[in-house]
Every structure is written in C-alpha cells, then in structure tokens.
C-alpha cells in the first residue's frame, strides 16, 4: 500500500525532534497514526539515525502482548537503550498498557530518550496523565485524510468535483483509497470493522457499557443530525426504550464515550456579541462522511448542506483552529475559528444562487449575520459555486473545493 505523506503532521514531529517533550498523537483508529510513525522513522534513518536507536512497539499486535505489563515494558525498553546516543521510542496504541503513564514518566526522565506515543481514545490524556505530564507533552490531534491529501493519492488530478464526491462516499480513511482502487464494494467491510472495533473495544469495554443497542442508537442519532443544534434532552426524547428517570444521565455518558473514541466531535456555541461561551445547544460532527454513509445508508447523502459543513469543520480542526458555532443576537454563524493569533468567521452553503427570486434570499440570509459583526476579522462564505472571489463589503465568497485544496 502506497503511503500518503501527511506533511502537516510530519512537520510537527520534525520540529520537536530531540526536544525533551513527549509527542502524543491522538485520533480515531485507522486514521494513519501508525503510518505517520513509520514515515517519521524513515526520516530519522535518512538523517543518520541507526536502526538500533529506534524502538517501535504497536500494542495492538499479539507479538507485544506480554509487554502490556508496564513493569515488563519498562525493563524491556531500558535494556534496548543505546548508551551515549539518543534512542527514539515509539509506543503505538499505548492505552492497552495498564498504568502506562508511570512507564512514560520514567522514560521521560532519561535525557537520551525521545518519546512518541499514540492512542485511539481520549483516556490517553485523562486528567491523571495530563496532571502527571503537565508541561512535558504536546498533543498532535490526527484526523483521517483531508481532501488535499486524498487527491494527492491519484495521478489523475482532473475532475475534482467527482473525486470530492468519491471522497465523501467512499471514506477519508487512508486505507479506503487502496480498497477503492481495487473494488469500492470492499470499503463497506472495512468501515464495518472500524465501526464495530470502536464501539466494542474503545467504547463498551473501556467505559464498561453493556447496552450495545442503546449505544448504537445514540451514535446513529448523532450521525444523522450533524450540523443540527441538539441537547441531551433532544437525544433522549428520540431514543425509545430508555428509562425516563435515568435517560439524561445515560445519554450524556454514551455521548461522551463516543466523543472520547474520536468517532464524533462536538462544537460548542459562542456568543460573538457577548464574547462568552455557551453551554447549551451544541452541534456534533462525524469524523468521516463515508462512515456516516455506511451507518445510515445512501439516502443520508441528500443532506449535502450539512455534509459540506461537516467537511469544513474537520478541515478547520486540521488547520489548528478551535472551532465554535457562532451566535449573534438571534442569528447564527456556522463557524467561528480561533487560534492564538486570529479569528475567522465562516458561513457554509451549497450555493448562494437563487433561481426563482431576484432578491437572492439565500445570499442575503448567509450575509446577514456576518454583516452584523463589527470587528475587522476575515469573513467568508464557502460554497460549491464557481464564481470566485466575489466580495460583499469585505465578506468574501469563495469556492469550497479551492479552499480545501489550499488554492485560496
């Protein structure tokens, strides 16, 4: 299988190489964490690091089952360290090692160790570990392929619109590309394996959840309602069979469990005018639209407006932003993207063209909340329309595919 260069993530690893800080890579199963470690190990070897200076263990492999005992793991790693030289240690899916944080802490003390760990569950950075390693780690939040990365896997870069449809339907997980090239029908089996492994191993076993039926219905509800404001009450009211006295707590536990497995992402709301974060009516987004098709069926593709919104949300996360749903009085801004230096506002729409109304109510509706915001931060409308670089009093309308490909 040809490995896709994940340059954005690789550049972070290169920048932090040899610094005494733990590199923690998190993300859903099969999003490419293991391949990223392999690519970085290739980089190390190309730059003079010897084979015996690299120790790589994947705790999902049966060969390393014995090392899931943290004491045995530490002794094994200690015996492999190269004296007088830097040893690069890669521990993949380390959440399978009970009390792994104690081993990580012991390794960190050694200045000749450069440590990289990955995990498929937010337990990896639970409050206990985060407290233990405060100031001593960086988290690299990994997602499946961006559209730009997906397109890079094809020699033929033409017909971008069709490839975007394939990207949505046939999944953004890296392995799905090879399956697509052989036979797209194989992708369903692949996605089914990911889905069941996450629900059984990362959610039910790790969280002690026994009601698979309710867990699946909660997960499917979130996937069916991407881009819609919701609440625990909304969900519990739509899940039959829950005991009403305990439904809120049950739903809240299940929702947090699927968020912790990275199969679902939550976007909280932000009051732009009042400059405060809101605690209700958040939105949820799927980690992969192909997985959503698999779970809900092809008819779920009719909701293209929210699907496009989902893609933009994930892309903003990839670009390092914290992303919120904006509120201004009674109007909504799809996304408020913030980082340490900047704030950007986005509206997302399939089109802003109006075929039966010369006043163009669609465009006016998208512009309305952005026009109310009286700061000088950039404001964009992202659409599939091809009339590029249209400007409405400083609000730019741009093609979303060009934006995803970094052309704008």
Secondary-structure blueprint of this entry?
Elements: H1 7-16, E1 22-26, H2 33-46, E2 54-58, H3 70-80, E3 87-92, H4 100-109, E4 113-119, H5 127-132, E5 137-141, H6 147-152, H7 160-169, H8 174-182, H9 186-207, H10 212-224, H11 232-237, H12 247-260, E6 264-271, E7 276-286, H13 289-296, H14 304-318, E8 322-328, E9 331-338, E10 343-348, H15 361-372, E11 379-383, E12 390-392, E13 395-399, H16 400-404
Parallel strand pairs: 1-4, 1-5, 2-3, 3-4, 6-8, 10-11, 11-13
Antiparallel strand pairs: 6-7, 8-9, 9-10, 12-13
Helix pairs in contact: 3-4, 9-12, 9-13, 10-12
Calculate Rg over CA atoms: 23 Å
Supply the number of helical segments: 16
The portion of residues assigned to helices is: 40-55%
Describe the sheet with the most strands.
8 strands, mixed
Structural class: alpha/beta
Order of secondary-structure elements: HEHEHEHEHEHHHHHHHEEHHEEEHEEEH
* Through-space gap between termini: 31 Å
Low-confidence stretches: none
- Looking at the structure, what is the overall shape? globular
For the residues shown, what is the average pLDDT? 92
Can you count the beta strands? Answer: 13
Strand order of the largest sheet: 7-6-8-9-10-11-13-12
Strand content: 15-25%
Supply the key terms.
single chain; 408 residues; alpha/beta; Rossmann fold
Can you walk through the features of this model?
This protein is of the alpha/beta class and 408 residues long. It has helices spanning 7-16, 33-46, 70-80, 100-109, 127-132, 147-152, 160-169, 174-182, 186-207, 212-224, 232-237, 247-260, 289-296, 304-318, 361-372, 400-404; strands at residues 22-26, 54-58, 87-92, 113-119, 137-141, 264-271, 276-286, 322-328, 331-338, 343-348, 379-383, 390-392, 395-399. The strands form two sheets. An eight-stranded mixed beta sheet has the order 7-6-8-9-10-11-13-12. A five-stranded parallel beta sheet has the order 2-3-4-1-5, with helices on both faces. α9 crosses α12 (247-260), α9 (186-207) packs across α13 (289-296) and α10 (212-224) crosses α12. It is globular and about 75 Å long.
